[in-house]
TrEMBL record:
<protein>
    <submittedName>
        <fullName>Dinitrogenase iron-molybdenum cofactor biosynthesis protein</fullName>
    </submittedName>
</protein>
<dbReference type="InterPro" id="IPR036105">
    <property type="entry name" value="DiNase_FeMo-co_biosyn_sf"/>
</dbReference>
<dbReference type="InterPro" id="IPR003731">
    <property type="entry name" value="Di-Nase_FeMo-co_biosynth"/>
</dbReference>
<dbReference type="Pfam" id="PF02579">
    <property type="entry name" value="Nitro_FeMo-Co"/>
</dbReference>
<feature type="domain" description="Dinitrogenase iron-molybdenum cofactor biosynthesis">
    <location>
        <begin position="8"/>
        <end position="96"/>
    </location>
</feature>
<dbReference type="InterPro" id="IPR033913">
    <property type="entry name" value="MTH1175_dom"/>
</dbReference>
Amino acid sequence: MRIAISTDGEYVSEHFGRCPNFTILNLEKGKVIERKSIDNPGHSPGFIPQFMNERGINLIICGGMGARASGMFEELGIETIAGVSGNINDIISKLEKGTLVGGESLCKPGAGRGYGVEKTVCDHPHED
């Protein structure tokens, strides 16, 4: 299974489309056999789902994802798990153990409108 995790430094990025990087994993028999980082190719509508599909990605893990991107992944047969947060190494450990669960997507309608990957401030709610 090939997995892409929206990444910001060593943590899951809050917004799938605006993450600086994606951590790409090859998972076989419950173990990561390959791990690499790729730059986000850009936040133009519809591009990243196709980009991931062309690279054989089966699963996307992120903090938040808009409804449009989520629908595009569904059409391509790519599973998504949103509402994930924390350190990438902890997330990988949960993947290997089969205990990773998502939650409510951090993205709200309109949060991504009109901005590209360069946007430095997100419109998501933040914990105090």
